[in-house]
TrEMBL record:
<keyword id="KW-1003">Cell membrane</keyword>
<feature type="transmembrane region" description="Helical">
    <location>
        <begin position="159"/>
        <end position="181"/>
    </location>
</feature>
<keyword id="KW-1133">Transmembrane helix</keyword>
<feature type="transmembrane region" description="Helical">
    <location>
        <begin position="303"/>
        <end position="326"/>
    </location>
</feature>
<keyword id="KW-0472">Membrane</keyword>
<keyword id="KW-0249">Electron transport</keyword>
<feature type="transmembrane region" description="Helical">
    <location>
        <begin position="119"/>
        <end position="139"/>
    </location>
</feature>
<comment type="similarity">
    <text>Belongs to the cytochrome ubiquinol oxidase subunit 2 family.</text>
</comment>
<dbReference type="InterPro" id="IPR003317">
    <property type="entry name" value="Cyt-d_oxidase_su2"/>
</dbReference>
<feature type="transmembrane region" description="Helical">
    <location>
        <begin position="201"/>
        <end position="219"/>
    </location>
</feature>
<keyword id="KW-0479">Metal-binding</keyword>
<feature type="transmembrane region" description="Helical">
    <location>
        <begin position="225"/>
        <end position="246"/>
    </location>
</feature>
<feature type="transmembrane region" description="Helical">
    <location>
        <begin position="253"/>
        <end position="274"/>
    </location>
</feature>
<feature type="transmembrane region" description="Helical">
    <location>
        <begin position="6"/>
        <end position="32"/>
    </location>
</feature>
<keyword id="KW-0812">Transmembrane</keyword>
<protein>
    <submittedName>
        <fullName>Cytochrome d ubiquinol oxidase subunit II</fullName>
    </submittedName>
</protein>
<keyword id="KW-0813">Transport</keyword>
Length: 343
């Protein structure tokens, strides 16, 4: 296989990992107003991702760096055209990270509620805008012969992209609530299961609309991998429905696992809908960026391939070890004891 095509799928793998891992972080953050009945409950929710949220976030940094090195033309067009949207994602991610670190620095209720609101905003905005960005990449945006984006921020807020953003928002929310149910006990655990039932039904409806729309677009564009898009979309739909069934039967592990499978297969469906392009021009197909005309030289890709072969397994092993170490449930009783000792 040509190295450029290999790196197209490696970049896709990195974004899949990011959406699965930081996706449930976003969902946990967005669930605070619905599940945190008191400060102990909110601390219990936040502590489920406390040891891993920053590690999960590094996936997007690695994905961006690989995009820059492997596909500089794609990187340049994407980051210049989507600058305001990506800047807003970056600022809200910073806001969320600061809130996690500063929330517990003072005991005042007003102080904590302020940072809780910033956690919600810092989770919801990226969850929505990532869907908008990916949907626009697949659906197409105005690109001229010099591979420069000629639209505006409003261009990105088209109906298909907005449905894509709403899909990722709801999908990440439900995925995060599954994780809360998996990692907590007591009232928070019970409330998370109930919330997942309600949000899951809405997620199924919106995701179905988006996936069907994506399939129709792929057929209309004559995508060479259109049947892979159909198959992956069907698997994503079955996995999402299966996660709802598992949640209803109090099988939190299965619900979370099937939620992750939903995100994996849905993102892969979008990736195959994009193939062999990396960014579609809506004004003239001839201006589209493809895997071949957007990639770096073979020499660069060869060096990157050796680096990935050496370091990627190490990163995956370290992340797996981290999750294993922090695999236990976050107990409300333990937080109450720690709070009593502190006072």
């Amino acid at each position: 296989m040509d190295l450029a095509y290999l790196w197209f799928f490696i970049v896709g793998f990195l974004f899949v990992g990011y959406f699965v891992l930081d996706g449930f972080d976003f969902g946990v953050g967005m669930s605070l107003p619905f599940l945190g009945k008191d400060d102990i409950g909110r601390r219990q929710i936040i502590n489920t991702i406390g040891p891993v949220w920053d590690l999960n976030e590094t996936w997007v940094i690695v994905a961006g760096a690989c995009l820059f090195a492997a596909f500089p033309e794609w990187y340049a067009t994407l980051f210049s055209g989507f600058y305001l949207a990506l800047l807003l994602i970056l600022l809200t991610l910073i806001l969320r990270g600061v809130s996690f670190e500063y929330r517990h620095q003072r005991d005042g209720l007003r102080w904590k509620k302020g940072f809780d609101r910033m956690i919600v905003i810092g989770s919801a905005v990226p969850a929505f805008l990532w869907g908008v960005a990916v949907a626009n990449i697949v659906h197409g945006v105005p690109i001229d012969a010099d591979h420069e984006f000629t639209g505006s921020l409003l261009t990105l807020l088209n109906p298909y992209a907005l449905v894509g953003g709403l899909t990722t928002l709801l999908l990440f929310f439900t995925h995060g609530v599954y994780f809360v149910a998996l990692k907590t006990d007591g009232q928070v655990h019970d409330d998370a299961r109930k919330l997942a039932r309600r949000s899951g039904i809405l997620t199924v409806v919106v995701a179905a609309v988006f996936l069907v729309w994506t399939i129709l677009n792929a057929f209309e564009a004559g995508a060479p991998a259109v049947w892979a898009v159909v198959l992956l979309s069907a698997v994503a739909a079955l996995a999402l429905i299966g996660s709802l069934v598992a949640n209803a039967r109090d099988r939190e592990g299965w619900a979370f696992g099937l939620g992750a499978a939903t995100i994996v297969t849905a993102v892969l469906a979008l990736w195959f809908a994009l193939f062999p392009n990396v960014m579609v021009s809506s004004t003239d197909v001839a201006n589209s960026l493809t895997i071949e005309n957007a990639s770096s030289t073979d020499y660069t890709l060869t060096i990157m391939s050796w680096a990935a072969l050496i370091f990627l397994p190490l990163v995956l092993a370290y992340q797996a070890w981290t999750y294993w170490i922090f695999r236990k449930r976050v107990s409300r009783t333990r937080i109450e004891r720690a709070a009593a000792v502190a006072h």
